[in-house]
Amino acid sequence: MFKRQTEGSVVCPYCGKLVGVNDKECWNCGKRNPGMWGFAPLLRRFGYNLEFVSIVTWVCTGLFIATLLYDPHGIRPGGLSLIQPSSVSLFTFGASGSFPVFEAGRWWTLLSAGWLHGGVLHILFNMLWVRQLAPATAELFGTSRTVIIYTVSSVAGFLLSSITGLITGAQLTIGASAAIFGLLGALVVYGRRGGSSRISGQAMTYAVILFVFGFIFPGIDNAAHLGGFLGGFAIAWILNPLQRERMEHFIAAIVCLALTALSILVSFFQTPVFY
Question: CATH fold of 51-269, please?
Answer without folding.
Answer: Rhomboid-like fold (1.20.1540)
